């Protein structure tokens, strides 16, 4: 499909009225940081990396940040409700996606209590993102446990690049009402940004899942002197989320209250070109208030159940990057982390449970010859009450010529159990007295971390004169010591528990293509083909085939996304995105979902005023004949939606 698209557009690319610019002929190869913590051109990266830049963000027509990740080969996005999302690479995820590491400006936003990321609670807007670097595959050697299926590194724009007052508003179907305000400026050596947002959403057409979110974020960058720089970021958010299903005793209609906050401070000192060190501290806090009463199911008893909890993370890290000589570079560092969680509904704990982690990491790059590059990396981690483990990585990049690079890579990564998996303790209780009458979850096993071994053969073609980048890889992944939810066959009235059980194998092929056809036209294609197989215990002790959970459909065999855009002479920009995902069996409380197809279109027109500029856009989502989009749950259905978006910048 990619070659066909290239052929069909080649005439337009060479049209005399739309010539290729000198900038495209001699544009720099993208530089990434995520794979090793060293700044590397894409051909030197030891991992497959997809870069979602400002152009892709602006033309995608995405309303939700997570929808941008549909553009990454092998990635799946699921909506548990209209405001709760899951993002996975190669499937095998429930609504918490515990195997994906997500960073914002170097700060992990992974939740230690239940895992995953509460995307709607993050104090982050797409307008402020400079780029998203996505590592497609395990990368614990650089970013630690939970960098298991991949790493999403979100880099926000420097406030000095946004010196303006910006207002953006959006209204449309599904009760969507959104307003975003930002003020950024520069005062001497200080750059700053203050942003506020309100977002309202009625959710899916067929669900009780409306939501509202309010947040505030502040960032400041202070250049102390020629060598020292200080970054400060903080934010707070809050909102109401509706949830539940009709006549469901465990998930009835209800409204939850979500609160989130973070603080981040980083000091960087540059000693010389290629030699710098940094010290970073951050704190994340999350609170979910979620409980309900039921006077029917256990009548005449009035009982209560809940899923609420609080969690927080404190993290301190030192990092040093330096050049050994012209052919060798290295980055190393030390870190310490404290994760905490509590919840009377989920852990029977009103006090904080604490898990400390200590880590040491390093990555070594050696340019052995002009065409051969070696990367070796690893991280050692030690958690409370767990044995220490080491996550290694080795990669060899062979530059065939100026445009073509081959990559061999092998790595191992671990996923630590969440607090919920390790210490789940949930019961149905009498309302008021909190006396347990039925235990639903109780983990008594000291779980081992899951681990994955991954091998890949990659190819990167950087055809700068054509504005074309082609990224392909063949891979094999094997997951062992999987953490599984099980029921006890010998005591059916006993609660569910978590154990280590089973293995999962994934073989696949991925392609990513980016073609900047001209200064005003671009095409992006992402394609993934996989074959998965494996099983784990569902009922213990297993004696029959049905006591095992078959995992073959946890990964959609085929996924495809295509994004194209063009700007006409009159300034109107037209872009379109198409997404396809084969049928998949979501894990946990997800459903078996049939083939999904989605087609989006964005039409926008920029304008300029005296000391101001802006844009008006119409966004059409899920158009076309098969437009009953179904996601994660069979009840999650919505048809075509239309949004009007307007933005204005004052300088």
Can you give a write-up of this model?
This protein is mainly beta and 651 residues long. It has one domain (2-251, 268-650): TonB-dependent receptor, beta-barrel domain (Maltoporin, Chain A). It is built from five helices and 43 strands. Strand 13 (211-223) and strand 14 (228-243) form a beta hairpin. It is globular and about 70 Å long. It starts with a helix and ends with a strand.
What descriptors fit this protein?
Maltoporin, Chain A; 5% helix; 22-stranded antiparallel barrel; 59% strand; 651 residues; five-stranded mixed β-sheet
Radius of gyration: 25 Å
Give the N-terminus to C-terminus distance in angstroms: 44 Å
Class inferred from helices and paired strands: mainly beta
Count of individual helical segments? 5
Question: What coarse outline follows from CA principal-axis ratios?
Answer: globular
Q: Low-confidence parts, pLDDT < 50 over ≥5 residues? A: 1-27
Number of domains: 1
Task: Examine the coordinates and then state which fold CATH places here, giving the name of the CATH topology.
Answer: Maltoporin, Chain A
Q: What is the CATH superfamily?
A: TonB-dependent receptor, beta-barrel domain
Largest sheet data: 22 strands, antiparallel, barrel
Helical content (DSSP H or I, runs of 4+)? under 10%
Mean pLDDT: 92
CATH class membership: Mainly Beta
What's the number of extended β-strand segments? 43
Beta-strand percentage range: over 45%
CATH architecture label name: Beta Barrel
């Amino acid at each position: 499909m990619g070659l066909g698209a290239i052929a069909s557009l080649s005439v337009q690319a060479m049209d005399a009225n739309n010539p290729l610019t000198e900038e495209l002929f001699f544009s720099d190869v993208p530089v990434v940081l995520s794979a090793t913590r060293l700044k590397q051109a894409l051909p030197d990266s030891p991992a497959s990396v997809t870069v979602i830049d400002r152009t892709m963000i602006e033309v995608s027509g995405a309303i939700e940040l997570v929808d941008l990740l549909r553009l990454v080969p092998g990635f799946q996005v699921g909506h548990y409700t209209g405001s709760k999302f899951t993002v996975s690479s190669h499937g095998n995820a429930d609504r918490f996606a515990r195997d994906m590491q997500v960073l914002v400006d170097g700060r992990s936003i992974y939740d230690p209590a239940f895992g995953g990321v509460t995307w709607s609670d993050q104090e982050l807007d797409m307008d402020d993102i400079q780029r998203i670097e996505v590592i497609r595959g395990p990368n614990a050697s650089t970013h630690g446990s939970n960098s298991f299926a991949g790493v999403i590194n979100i880099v926000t724009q420097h406030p000095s690049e946004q010196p303006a007052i910006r207002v953006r508003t959006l209204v449309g179907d599904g009760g969507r009402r959104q307003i975003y305000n930002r003020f950024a400026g520069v005062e001497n050596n200080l750059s700053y940004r203050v942003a506020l947002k309100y977002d309202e959403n009625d959710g899916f057409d067929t669900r009780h899942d409306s939501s509202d979110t309010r947040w505030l974020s502040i960032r400041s960058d202070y250049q102390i002197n020629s060598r020292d720089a200080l970054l400060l970021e903080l934010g707070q958010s809050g909102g109401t989320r509706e949830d539940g299903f009709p006549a469901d005793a465990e998930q009835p209609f209800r409204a939850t209250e979500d609160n989130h906050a973070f603080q981040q401070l980083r000091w960087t000192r540059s000693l010389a070109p290629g030699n710098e060190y940094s010290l970073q501290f951050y704190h994340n806090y999350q609170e979910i208030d979620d409980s309900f009463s039921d006077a029917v199911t256990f009548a005449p008893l009035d009982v209560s159940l809940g899923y609420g909890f609080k969690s927080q993370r404190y993290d301190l890290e030192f990092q040093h990057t330096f050049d050994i000589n012209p052919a060798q570079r290295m980055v190393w560092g030390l870190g310490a982390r404290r994760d905490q969680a509590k919840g009377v509904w989920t852990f029977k704990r009103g006090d904080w449970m604490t898990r400390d982690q200590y880590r040491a990491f390093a990555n070594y790059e050696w340019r052995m010859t002009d065409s051969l590059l070696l990367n070796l990396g690893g991280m050692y981690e030690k958690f409370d009450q767990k044995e220490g483990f080491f996550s290694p990585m080795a990669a060899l990049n062979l530059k065939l010529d100026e445009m073509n690079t081959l990559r061999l890579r092998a790595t191992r990564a671990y996923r630590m159990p969440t607090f919920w998996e390790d210490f789940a303790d949930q019961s149905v209780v009498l309302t008021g007295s909190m006396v347990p009458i039925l235990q639903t979850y109780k983990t008594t096993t000291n779980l081992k971390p899951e681990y994955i071994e991954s091998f890949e053969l990659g190819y990167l073609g950087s055809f700068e004169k054509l504005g074309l980048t082609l990224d392909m890889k063949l891979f094999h992944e094997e997951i062992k010591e999987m953490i599984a939810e099980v029921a006890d066959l010998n005591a059916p009235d006993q609660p569910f528990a978590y154990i280590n059980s089973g293995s999962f194998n994934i073989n696949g092929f991925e392609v990513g293509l980016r073609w900047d056809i001209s200064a005003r036209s671009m095409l992006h294609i992402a394609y993934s083909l996989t074959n998965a197989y494996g099983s784990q215990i569902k009922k213990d002790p297993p004696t029959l085939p049905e006591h095992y959970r078959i995992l073959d459909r946890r990964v959609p065999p085929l996924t495809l996304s295509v994004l194209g855009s063009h700007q006409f002479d009159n300034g109107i920009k037209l872009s379109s995105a198409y997404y396809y995902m084969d049928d998949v069996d979501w894990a946990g409380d997800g459903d078996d979902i049939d083939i999904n197809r989605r087609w989006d279109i964005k039409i926008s027109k920029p304008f300029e005023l005296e000391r101001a500029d802006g844009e008006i856009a119409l966004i059409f989502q899920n158009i076309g004949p098969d437009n009953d989009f179904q996601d994660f749950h069979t009840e999650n259905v919505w048809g075509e939606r239309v949004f009007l978006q307007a933005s204005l910048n004052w300088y």
